[in-house]
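Minutes, project check-in

Agenda point 3 was the complex the collaborators sent over. CS summarized: two entities, 907 residues total, and the question is how they sit relative to each other. Sequences were read into the notes so everyone works from the same version.
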Amino acid sequence: MILSAKESALFLIEKAQRRRADGEAYIVEYKTREATIENNEIQNTIQASGVGVAFRVSYNGKMGLAYASGLDRDNLYQLFEDAFLSTKYAVKNDFNAFAEPPKTVPIVDIYDSSLDEGTIRSTIEHMLSINRIFPSCNPIRGFDLLHYTEKGKKVFLANTKGLYVSYPTSDISFWGILRGKNKENEQSYSIFHKCKFFPNEAEVTNIAKDYAHKLSSLLMTTKEIKNGEYTTIFSPQVTNKFLYSLLLSLRADIVIKRGTFLSGRLNEKVASNIVDVVDDGTKNKFYGTLPVDDEGIPAKSKTLIKNGVLKGFLHTISTARQTKTEPTGNAKRYNLNKFPSVGATNFFIATKDTGVNDLIASTVKGVYLCDSMGHGFDIATGNFSLPARGVLVERGEIIHSVNVFINTKIESILKNIEGISDVLGYPSWTDVISPTIKVRGLFLSHIR
Amino acid sequence: MIKNIDVFMIEKIINEGVIRGAEFVELFIEEAKEISISIEEGVIQSPSICRNIGIGLRIFYHGRMAYLFSEGLDFETIRNNIIVTSKIVQRSEKSQILLPSPKTIYYPDHKDSHIPMDIEKTVSSLKNTYESSKNLSDKIEKIRMNYTGKQQNFIIANSRGLYIRHQRNILSFRASASARKHNKMQNGNVEIRSCGGDDVFEEFNPKTICIQACNKALVKEDTREIKSGITTAVICHGLLLHETVGHALESDFAYKGNSVFSDKIGNKVASENVTIVDNPLFSLGGGSIMIDDEGTQCKETVLIENGYLRSFLYDIQTAERMNTVSTGNGRRESYKYPPIPRMTNTILKEGDYGTEEIIHSVKNGIYIQRMSGGEYNISTGDFSCFINEGHAIENGHVTYPISGVSISGNCIKFLCNIDMVGSEFKVSSGDCCKLMQQINIGMIQPVFRVRGIGIGGKQ
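CS then shared the predicted structure for the full assembly.
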């Protein structure tokens, strides 16, 4: 017998109560449609719908978790017994707790209802329009590969404390390999974009123009630069890598378990005066926005670094109790199979009032980094390493393309930020959103 | 549950596609159970039990693939979706697929294993491991262990008469130790991943792995900075070959002409010291499988032989497009994904040199023991990796530790510059993510020497 999501949540909660246990059901119903095109030929489509249930139960202070797919009543019985069995092996942990029902929940716009009327045919049309618009921006020649996804989800969260929240959310994303060409050179360039609402033609054109601009720079002939210190401008794509490393360092679960280079440094100066780092789960239509986090704590805006001074970390209920602070609404289930851990909502460096072109034009001698490959980060020391591609800038003019290594500490980048652009780029797959930043005196070495 | 599935239901679904003109219909029905336990300072932290069951349907009309999946055993939804899909997929003569004729009805020896699912035994084994490792040295301050045991049962059936039931066990274990030395903490990590039959769990010895992690933390010294430039590297970690050879030779990119290796079959692409194979049958490798996720029986595939490019890694779809046969490399994360060409265990065949002999041959260079964050550009062959553990080599001797730097290069140049290959194998394993699908893979290689690697330092 198949139950609805709400019935399933209540069924599990009631069973927990009967056993004198606390419990929390997190259920996600989803529908997804995907399509792939390669060299202008549609290759495949994917359609699916499903439901997953994660159930946490706390008995005598010991917490266990079980996960199952489907809402069959027999499955739910098994799920409950699995969760209860797992508590047998856990130890009593006073920091574990479930959320109280929230007094207010922010009203946020995060669902594109046109998904409901969509079919795989409309999904293919959306993908074809992206495939058509990008090559209209020179020097983009087309996609070697484009994968497009539309996903609608409905989340149900209930616990034995009386919390019950349900909300729909949509995820639209595409990624691909662009090919760009000018008279002398040809380059491929990986792109990724995600958003809550279908981008219209003008929005796709703007995204395409942004990539076209970067590709133009990268298609210039590459020349060697001398190893040394340069004023370095990070495009949002490159800032994302740096910002993601900073995000990991501000996660309270990692701080507690392993320590990061920011452990124990509250109220210390860790960045230049112009740097504010924010995590804000309430920004309408932003990709990371949610009414409540994955434990039921209402979303909020937190300034983690204010005028360069470290002001806080990101918390779940458990990490907040361990460190005698308040949860920040940052519990995240990266995988329903796992316990919630700390994650970002919309994590960004707050924008300032300088245009990107002004950041470049005011550079006497520096490097503007457009793209990067991989990156390495040591969370304990803050060592950060990044191979990147960009262009040499002299007296505000772009001279030629360069390939460089950055090897420095995250803190050194933070403390030397001297300019921040007035717009945020697009969200990365790692949940960070970056402006363009300008960093003085960064040591760059040429990649041969 | 999937044990009780009626074969007539499977036939009915497949025939639903066939009568609507599909060239190929395949069902992948999966039931997986996973237990996961982490233990910190002898205390169990987050035990969990997960069960997944679902159906993936792959269907080809005129060369185009549609993939549908549903959670649970909802055959009716899958059947209805076939009817809808047959109306959507449009004709494309260019990418016609001719699937192999029916010949395989394969039932591997199958016994139900419950070893990985015994949460009680696992908890007890991990607690004993902690007790016996914590007193190794008074400098050891913290020991953490993460264990995941997964048992995957699946059925693959297709319109060409293939019908397989199979069980696969996957074990993943990571031990981390922290030691206090000169008032500073040093960490040591060791991770293993095994995939195969019951032997995966029978041969699992958490104590040995945990002691290795403790010893790593105990011998670790403070790292020093290294100069940027071009250097000679002695490498004993498989990530570079995984990135530069493995991904580049997966046929989905190669057949479109997008890979730097696309038109190079039969050409010299590496030094004569280099023979690289993909071997899914390597015992207890991170990527060991008996059959792939399309039901093709696995075998060793020679990719590069004495420097000459011999083959790509194929699944059924890409093999047909390149007029060849699948190499048994069609892999998927679960029923939620269609199979794509993937590596299993990437193996560099051994050479004649001893590890010490190779190190002594380097005047100045680096010795790389562990890497992460690998990234590879398929079309240009450029790659980069982050060094997690490494040492400088000075006058033929391994000296001070380095870390926090990246190396980069171009794959063909890199392969051509491998000039010494050792005789002693190092086995490493990990997760590999491609097209959003995460699977387990193995990397097995002896120590080798390569010239001309770019390293980014702080000076």
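Noted in discussion: The first helix of chain B runs from residue 7 to 18.
Follow-up: revisit at the next meeting once the mutant set is ready.
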